[in-house]
Design goal:
By secondary structure, the protein is an alpha/beta fold. It has three domains: about 70 residues, Elongation Factor Tu (Ef-tu), domain 3; about 280 residues, Rossmann fold; about 110 residues, Bovine Mitochondrial F1-ATPase, ATP Synthase Beta Chain, Chain D, domain3 (Orthogonal Bundle), CATH 1.10.1140. About 35% of the residues lie in helices and about 25% in strands. Helix 4 crosses helix 5 and helix 9 crosses helix 11.
Length: about 475
């Protein structure tokens, strides 16, 4: 039997407080009837003896301390689940906002998910093809991995997110069991419209489930959005055997909502005002990616976050880096040069790629070309640093070769159109052609047997129209 409580003891921001509450539980859903006859919903976020703090999803505007009726439902927040999620657009709390009726639920599930036994996890092996060379070859996305994108204000992370949705596919099969769950948090109306319009124009909306929280929506809903999205992804993966790619943007908006909410509860702030439990809260999201023993589906995550002031040591990217298996870092200097996507190669890595590439997955030479491209581009940075001190004219001939390689690498490899979808074979072949600009003896990360098969200086000269006698000043 449920008990209805009359009146509130306190209202503070998005929170209401009730005293003398019996048998309430943390995360329990609450139904609130206001004096004007409207009904709002909330959840229990704090319990102190018989005093309960309830987070109101729709906000506490115009609520009264005296004539508000509150009923505890006895269950946590649940999301209606069905395969009909695909092709639909929902609010951050899972309500349909695309003008169509609510979906017919085949089941309902707690948005907080179920604890995952680490022993039941399967090590991720196969890869997801994104069609983007800098990701596929150098920071390969492995199925079941969590690989964040570290961006900054004004960088093209929204465009990159759209390109990933349009182009991503699993390596094997025809893609019928591959889908995407896209969650946008704290975005403006024009950005939300851009996402939806881009997916519809590309003809991929039927394999996408969108959860959208706008910047003028309650911050409470923003804290629910990624959990609703991940609950939908787990359902599609483990009950419909689908391989699900979850894209979460922008995690920074989520963390700022968490900070504001924590402050309203009067909690002691941690670093830069974020709650002390930010690490465990982010882990509760990121660790829902993976592959489970006995399941045919998988959940792969790409969280996107904007680093305040491009500071990679900020708490959000810092803690995200601890939890996830690598990162893709967007470089502002490359962006200013007009290179898209501006992926900074040297600070980016995918810790799981070594076990998901090579023969049987991508191509047997993938590891070789990846290692050599990293090494060569690192020497490009050394040559550029030296040139900034002594001038390009004073560089050695081999340093000038590396400067040439760096220019062509950025122009032809990193830079590709927002609609350009490269196969893994095209990406690897382009990598070898770029490496063939350099003298063969400089490629010290590759066996001679592999070089015999792929190194071809004449083909590189012809492909890129290189004049051997041209000086670096003319290349710029």
């Amino acid at each position: 039997m449920s008990i209805q409580y009359m009146g509130l003891s306190e209202i503070s921001g998005p929170l209401i407080f009730l005293d003398h509450v019996q048998n309430a539980s943390y995360e329990e859903m609450v139904e609130i009837k206001c004096g004007d006859g409207t009904t709002r919903y909330g959840r229990v976020v704090q319990l102190d003896g018989q005093r309960a703090a309830v987070q109101v999803f729709e906000g506490t505007n115009a609520m009264s301390l005296t004539n508000t009726k509150t009923r505890f439902t006895g269950k946590p927040m649940e999301l209606a689940l069905s395969k009909e999620l695909l092709g639909r657009v929902f609010s951050g709390s899972g309500k349909a906002i695309d003008g169509l009726p609510e979906i017919y639920a085949q089941k309902r599930a707690d948005i907080n998910g179920q604890p995952l036994n680490p022993v039941s996890r399967v090590y991720p092996r196969n890869y997801i093809n994104t069609g983007i060379s800098s990701i596929d070859a150098l920071t390969t996305l492995i199925r079941g991995q969590k690989l964040p994108i570290f961006s900054g204000s004004g960088m093209p992370h929204n465009e990159l997110a759209v390109q990933l949705v349009k182009q991503a596919k699993i390596a094997d099969g025809d893609g019928k069991n591959f889908c995407i769950v896209f969650a946008a948090m704290g975005v403006k109306n024009d950005v939300a419209d851009y996402f939806k319009r881009s997916f519809e124009e590309a003809g991929v909306m039927d394999r996408v489930a969108m959860f959208v929280n706008l910047s003028n929506d309650p911050i409470i809903e923003r804290t629910l959005t990624p959990r609703c999205a991940l609950t939908a992804a787990e359902y599609l993966a483990y009950e419909h055997d689908m391989h699900v790619l979850v894209i979460l943007t922008d995690i920074t908006s989520y963390c700022e909502a968490l900070r504001e909410f924590s402050s309203s509860k009067g909690e002691i702030p941690g670093r830069k005002g974020y709650p002390g439990y930010l690490y465990s809260d982010l882990a509760s999201l990121y660790e829902r990616a993976g592959i489970i023993k006995g399941a045919k589906g998988s959940v792969t995550q790409i969280p996107i976050l904007t680093m305040p002031n491009d500071d990679i040591t900020h708490p959000i990217p810092d803690l995200t880096g601890y939890i996830t298996e690598g990162q893709i870092v967007l470089d502002r200097s490359l962006n200013q040069m007009g290179i898209y996507p501006p992926v900074g190669i040297l600070p980016s890595l995918s810790r799981l790629m070594k076990d998901g590439i090579g023969e049987g997955y991508t191509r047997k030479d993938h590891s070789d070309v990846s290692n050599q491209l990293f090494a060569a581009y690192a020497k490009v940075q050394d040559a550029r640093s030296l040139a900034s001190v002594i001038g390009e004219d004073e560089l050695s001939e081999i340093d000038k070769k590396y400067m040439m390689f760096g220019s062509y690498f950025e122009q032809y490899y990193l830079n590709q159109g927002a609609d350009e979808n490269r196969s893994i074979e095209e990406t690897l072949d382009l990598g070898w052609d770029l490496l063939s600009i350099l003298p063969r003896e400089e490629l010290d990360r590759v066996d001679n047997e592999v070089l015999d098969q792929f190194y071809n200086h004449e083909r590189a000269v012809q492909r890129f129209g290189i004049k051997e006698e041209v000086i670096i000043a003319e290349l710029a």
